[in-house]
């Protein structure tokens, strides 16, 4: 089913868009794009209840897609982007207001380096993971590509994180999530090892002293003189 409609879409002047209604797919109830047929170049309006990018990224119909706006859906992962042809040539990617906790930092770094068509990436209003393992790498990506990632103030730690709730990741101190652990007391086994090492050094030192004394004076060590 096809129809023509006039819309105003995110920073674009009123223009004509084609709609295809997909009632057979419960995850993709409506798509709005510029162009028609195989020449789809931009999806502007969010796809209701979508939770994966596979349908779009791997669909030949969207081979020419360059602008993708999937704000306010339920997408928990973008692993489908890694290694995809689309990720190497896209222009705009907006994933604001989804369920993302982390992204493959290496894949995004590689794509940003090789793709010279990128105009903007939007990742704000997601419940981002904040810990010492992930945050340093993610923060480095955000700062490295701050001219590409356009909504840094909205990229914050998950509200559920007690110590970092809603903290802006690009400006947070890494010491907030990478705290030094408590100083561990010396264990019993280490005390035993230190004691044994000290005794060995004392015995070795005494032996060397007695050996030197015997060589110079001919006098037997004190211990040998009292033994029967």
Automatic annotation (TrEMBL):
Membrane recorded as keyword: yes
Gene3D superfamilies per the UniProt record, alphabetical: Ribonuclease Inhibitor (3.80.10.10)
InterPro entries: Leu-rich_rpt, LRR_dom_sf
Key words, A-Z: Membrane, Transmembrane, Transmembrane helix
Protein name: Protein singed wings 2
Lineage top rank: taxon: Eukaryota
Regions that span the bilayer: 188-209
Biological source species: Eumeta variegata
